[in-house]
Design goal:
Elements (H helix, E strand, L loop, with lengths): L4 H15 L8 H8 L3 H13 L3 E4 L5 E4 L8 H9 L23 H19 L2 H18 L1
Antiparallel strand pairs: 1-2
Helix pairs in contact: 1-2, 1-3, 1-4, 1-6, 2-3
Length: 147
């Protein structure tokens, strides 16, 4: 699995919303500025995240974006599935496609891809945005004291 700019920027945006969780709606321009994301591109990502139920958005003077649920209830897998699609590195291990491959019953490589998928999925599903934001804060504090 290769994470594209879409996934990278989407995770950055969610980290910013996690950092500001409980403060109300956050303007997309503030998210873009804080995380070095082009605002026009961010807008598209926020629509995708809203449609997936990960964030809420509101228009108007008091509008902006916020997490739809607590950061500890959102995994990196949730975000990447919404932004990138399936986590599987090859089609042959996707649940709805596996039987389409004429070699699926005797393919040793398929077993390897399944192990990769299972390990990747476990890491991404167990990594929650609250823990990720906390770790980011720790790393930034260490970096700022080293300067």
């Amino acid at each position: 699995m290769k994470v594209s700019t879409k996934g990278e920027y989407g995770i950055r945006a969610l980290l910013e919303l996690t950092k500001r969780y409980g403060e109300g709606y956050v303007l997309s321009s503030d998210i873009a500025a804080a995380r070095s994301i082009p605002e026009n591109y961010l807008y598209q990502l926020l629509i995708t995240l809203r449609k997936a139920g990960i964030i809420r958005s509101r228009r108007g003077p008091q509008g902006g974006h916020m997490l739809a649920r607590a950061p500890q209830d959102i995994s990196v897998a949730d975000a990447l599935l919404a932004l990138e699609g399936p986590l599987e590195p090859t089609l042959c291990v996707q649940e709805d496609i596996v039987n389409d491959c004429p070699y699926h019953e005797g393919c040793a490589m398929r077993e390897v891809w399944q192990l990769v998928t299972d390990a990747t999925s476990e890491v991404l599903r167990s990594t929650r945005f609250d823990a990720l934001a906390e770790r980011e804060g720790q790393l930034r504090r260490v970096a700022s004291t080293a300067d």
